[in-house]
Structures are given as C-alpha cells and as structure tokens.
Amino acid sequence: MQIAQGLAAAHAKGLVHRDIKPGNILLKISVDCQHDSKEWVEITDFGLARVADDRSISHSGDVIGTPQYMAPEQARGEKTDVRADLFSSGGRAVRDVYRQVPFHTENVYAVLQKVCHEKLRPIREINPEIPPEVEQIIEKLLQKERQNRYKRPAQ
Known about the structure:
Elements: H1 2-12, E1 15-16, E2 25-31, E3 37-43, E4 50-51, H2 72-75, H3 82-98, H4 108-117, H5 123-126, H6 132-141
Antiparallel strand pairs: 1-4, 2-3
C-alpha cells in the first residue's frame, strides 16, 4: 500500500518513475530508545523519472530503465504515463511470488520481446497460496495494453 501511495504522490506531481523494481523499493526501520520500531517503505532512485509522456528509449537507441520490469510501451520506446509505473509494480509483485524476475532471459532484446508479447504463467500456478483477489490485481497491472491497466495507483 505504501508503494502505491508513493507512486500516487509522484504521479500527482506529473512524474513517472520509469524504473520501479525491487532494488528501488527500500524497507526502512527506525528503533527508538524504548525499542519501539517504526517501519516504512521508500521509493528510491528517481534518476530516470520524467514528466509524464516522455519516451523511454533515447535517440541513440539506448534502453532507459530495467527491461525485466518495463511496461510494453516503455520497451517499444513509446510515450509513457503513470500506467507504465503500475505495470512495473505488477512485475515487482510477480518477482515476490516467482522468486525471480519476470520475463527472464539472457539477452536484453529478447527480454523486451517477452515484455511486449509473452504472457506470464498464472500466479496461482506458481504459488497457490496467493489469494485470487491478489492474482486479479497483479494480472490487471500486467496487461500488455495500457488502457486495460488501472489508471492510477490505489490510495
């Protein structure tokens, strides 16, 4: 929920992160003198963030972002909006379930092809303990066509 709230705050300012992945989500913990702890999630590395509708492949053809978590429109070098971050959030959730990156292969361009065209195995085939409602949310986040995804993060 905190990731969704953080993305909603960035999106409200017109920013698209463009590189949501496990390495950019930190769990922070503070402990006070009474040993009470507080935990929160922080989205880091806004180095690739752009104003909504910016492109994700440079004029030189370099890929900007982490291919395994990219939305198909980002992988194709099209304009991105907040729904690209939502796709990446779904990919991050799949990583938690599969215990490996989604769309895994050794070649970057093969990864980009998988991102654009390959459907992942149903999550409950991998982990039957995942509630059907969670599977439905992740499947909607990972829709190949952005208009079929959520329009914004849940708040």
